[in-house]
Amino acid sequence: MKDNCEGSKLKDLKAIDLLDTPTKKEYDEIFNLAAFICDTPISLVSIITDTHTPLYKSFCVHAIKVPQELFIVEDARKDVRFKNNTLVTGTPNIVFYAGMPLISRTGIVLGTFCVIDTKPRKLEKKTIRRAVIFGKSGGKSV
């Protein structure tokens, strides 16, 4: 995997038409399937920029540290990294988070493909495996 250089990241984001664009039906279908697999109400792509969510509040900054693994926070209210985070204590009230790094075809980490819930969750091993497989293949689709 290459270094996360901003110029290359922006080029890759523009190439896949994901940055600041309206929702696309094909992406909605991918996100809906991810939410279904993990039985969560929310799924999305979180792009690593400091423009929407400051990096120090971002869950995905933690998720990209191990690019081939699913990063899971079963209850953010009890996790020392997140319990005082305003994304947990206020809107959108994130409690459960699972994120898989979204890596471009050129090897740049763009962000995460994640599922979120407002209540705690514990994913079964088979669900984690499905989510990892889906996250890796979904990343190639996005």
Task: Give a quick precis of the structure.
The chain is an alpha+beta fold.
Descriptive account of the structure:
It contains five helices and four strands, in the order H-H-E-H-E-H-E-E-H. Helix content is 35%, strand content 18%. It has a four-stranded antiparallel sheet with strand order 1-4-3-2. The chain has helices at residues 6-15, 25-38, 60-63, 86-89, 125-141, and strands at residues 42-47, 71-73, 96-103, 109-117. The longest helix is centred in the C-terminal third of the chain and has 17 residues, at 125-141. The model is unreliable at 1-5 (pLDDT under 50). It is globular, with a radius of gyration of 14 Å. It has 142 residues and is of the alpha+beta class.
List the helices and strands and how they pair.
Elements: H1 6-15, H2 25-38, E1 42-47, H3 60-63, E2 71-73, H4 86-89, E3 96-103, E4 109-117, H5 125-141
Antiparallel strand pairs: 1-4, 2-3, 3-4
Features:
142 residues; alpha+beta
Ranges where pLDDT stays below 50 over 5 or more residues in a row are 1-5
In angstroms, what separates the terminal alpha carbons? 17 Å
Q: What percentage of residues falls in helices of 4 or more residues? A: 25-40%
Task: Kindly name the structural category.
Answer: alpha+beta
Radius of gyration (Å): 14 Å
For the biggest β-sheet, the strand order reads 1-4-3-2
SSE order in H/E notation?
A: HHEHEHEEH
